[in-house]
Amino acid sequence: MNSRLLVPAALLSALVPVCAAAQEPAACNQDFDGVGAPALPAGWRTADATPGAGWQTLAGSADGGVNAAHLADHGAHRYQAGLLSPIFVVPAAGAVLHFRQRRAYSWANTVGVLEIAIDGHAFTDIIAAGGEFLAGGYDGRSFASNPLGARRAWLAAPAAYAETRVRLPAAARGKPVQLRFRAGSGGTGDESPGWYLDSIACASR
């Protein structure tokens, strides 16, 4: 069974009008299957990746379908790496971001966060910007020695996909935004499978 069906079927009717309002359907919804690995889809890019190749698509590791976005965890090195979405407009009525993720980090040494840039401003943590996790929120804090600083974050978890849902900030309504899935390591861990993302979608709820 395609595990993307775990996203409630009632959301499907909400996806089309939300993406139409954004005028960039591909920026709202991404399953990473439309490209050949390791390429990222048009408009998606990796940034600040040292060492390693940064975020790529990886075949055979998806929540369903073919590819997932993947960042290998080089936990023996101090690093940070972000996966940046295309810029899209949040509907005036607001939106909820849905995605599936699994994490196999180097214990508490490596963490992940979600950040948002609203209307061309600097990236800010999704919670600090006014967002709200509805499912699958942060489960710990990073150390001060981490390049991302001491902050709430996703730590290592059992290597199985789980759903995350986050209500985008009220300040983003009607504004162009960009998302950044960002990982950081303090460099005191080891090589681990890393972070996998799939089935990203914006919906009205």
Series of secondary-structure elements, N-terminal to C-terminal: HHEEEEEEEEEEEEEE
Structural class: mainly beta
Number of helices: 2
Mean pLDDT: 85
Helix content: under 10%
User: What amount of the residues lies in strands?
Assistant: 35-45%
Instruction: Give the CA-based shape.
Output: globular
Question: Rg, please?
Answer: 16 Å
Measure the end-to-end span.
25 Å
Poorly predicted regions: 1-26
Largest sheet entry: 6 strands, antiparallel
Structure description:
This protein has 205 residues and is mainly beta. Helices cover 7% and strands 40% of the residues. It contains 2 helices and 14 strands. Strands 1, 4, 5, 7, 8 and 13 form a 6-stranded antiparallel beta sheet that branches. The protein has a 6-stranded antiparallel beta sheet with strand order 2-3-14-6-12-9. The chain has a two-stranded antiparallel ribbon with strand order 10-11.
Provide keyphrases for this structure.
14 strands; 6-stranded antiparallel β-sheet; 205 residues; mainly beta; 2 helices
How would you summarize what this structure contains?
By secondary structure, this protein is mainly β. The chain has helices spanning 12-22, 25-28, and strands at residues 45-47, 56-59, 67-74, 78-84, 88-89, 96-104, 110-118, 124-125, 132-135, 140-141, 152-153, 162-167, 176-186, 191-203.
Record the SSE blueprint.
Layout: H1 12-22, H2 25-28, E1 45-47, E2 56-59, E3 67-74, E4 78-84, E5 88-89, E6 96-104, E7 110-118, E8 124-125, E9 132-135, E10 140-141, E11 152-153, E12 162-167, E13 176-186, E14 191-203
Antiparallel strand pairs: 1-4, 2-3, 3-14, 4-13, 5-13, 6-12, 6-14, 7-8, 7-13, 9-12, 10-11
